[in-house]
Design a protein that fits this description.
This protein starts with a strand and ends with a helix. The chain is α+β, with helices and mostly antiparallel strands and 131 residues long. A five-stranded antiparallel beta sheet has the order 1-5-4-3-2. It has a single domain, classed as TT1751-like domain (TATA-Binding Protein, 2-Layer Sandwich), CATH 3.30.310. It has helices at residues 14-27, 38-46, 61-70, 99-103, 109-130; strands at residues 5-10, 31-37, 53-59, 80-86, 92-97. Residues 36-99 form the DUF302 domain. It comes from mine drainage metagenome. This is DUF302 domain-containing protein. InterPro entries: DUF302, TT1751-like_sf, UCP021774.
Amino acid sequence: MSDYVFTVTSPKGFEATVQAATEALQQEGFGVLTTIDVAATLKAKLGIEERPYLILGACNPHYAHQALQAEPDIGALLPCNVVVREEADGRVSVVFMDPAAVLGMVKRPEVDKLGGEVRGKLKRVAEALRA
C-alpha cells in the first residue's frame, strides 16, 4: 500500500472492468480524456508481451477548473489517473491516484480541499467497482 494510490480488486474480467470503471467515473462527473494502453505500447516499441494494463486519464472539469484557478501549474498533476491491470493470477486490479496526496504537494488550503473532495468521488468509484 502506498501513500499516493488506493486499489480495489474487481470481480469482473479486464474489459468489463474497464467499461465499469468508465461508467462509474461518469456517474461521479469524470470523463476519460486519455487511454494509454501500456501493454500494447510495450509490445509495439520493445516487443515485450505483458498482461493487459491501461491508464485512464480521468478528469472532472468542475474540479479541474477550480484547481487551475487556484494554481496554474497544477496542470502538471492532472488528470487523475486510474490504472486497470490484470494480475499474474488473473485478478483485475484498479488503482486510483489519490488526489488528496498528490495535490497536497501544492501546499495550498484551497487545493487541499479540492483534493479531498475529488478523493471522495474516486473512493465511491472504487467501491462501485468492488461490488
